[in-house]
Structure prediction request, 160 residues.
Amino acid sequence: MTDGAGAPREVLDALRAHVDELTEAVRQLPAERLEADAEAGEAEGGWTARQVLAHLADFELVAAVRVRMMLSLDHPTLPAYGQEEFTDRFAALETPAEALERLTVTRRATLRVLEAATPADWDREGTHPQRGVEPLRRTAEMLSRHDATHLAQLRRAAGT
Prediction:
């Protein structure tokens, strides 16, 4: 992969590390904090830590589809999804441990796909309905930033 700020290797390393960091943050999260607001007044839609984990797992699934579409289709329209609607409908269907497992399995698969990408692949583009045209590189960077944002919420919820 290439070198430099925001380069694929750095993004891949961050995506890999975030899974381990999320696992540790969840391990440190007392059970009673799973159902409390991840950050009173600041959490996305007032989500609980449990809902944040479900959201992360759902977002990972959508990102995995976007990545695969950009690598296999010419200029695909990337799927959008309603994060509030997904969280409201699906978060209660799995335990936090199951959400974390789903996130981890999907992330590992996405990392394998991204690690196999060529330098030219990182410039392949798709069109997101709200954000417009974006290259694979930006999608991966956004996934990493998204992880970091919610990881910080979970750490604060855990008091770490």
Notes: Strands lie at 125-128, 132-135. The longest strand covers residues 125-128. Residues 8-158 form a domain with the Four Helix Bundle (Hemerythrin (Met), subunit A) fold (CATH 1.20.120.450). Residues 15 and 144 are 6 Å apart (CA to CA).
